[in-house]
Amino acid sequence: MISRHWRGLAKADQAQNYTEHLRSDTFPALRNLPGFMSASILTRPIADGIEFLIITQWRALDDIARFSSQDLDAAVVPSAVILMMIEYDRRVRHYEVIE
Hints:
29% of the residues lie in helices and 38% in strands. It is of the alpha+beta class. Strands 1, 2, 3, 4 and 5 form a 5-stranded antiparallel β-sheet that branches. The longest helix is centred in the N-terminal third of the chain and has 17 residues, at 15-31. The termini are close together. The relative contact order is 0.31.
């Protein structure tokens, strides 16, 4: 199993909108992809806004390619989400899940 991690810093007044976007748009679309297993939203307030860590779990890297394209480390960030962010990762990190 592969864990895909992405970090973004949302404007404080946009944090709820971002959470709603994940729940209504992103996660339902991911659930339709072969190999997608689960997703988590982690958040914490910091001085400049609300930090998010989005973790998705996938069966294999090949499954991630259906979502992200052949550049597996490229972040998939819709333009609507970019407007909600102060900063965000352009590249993601993948980890093999051992246990």
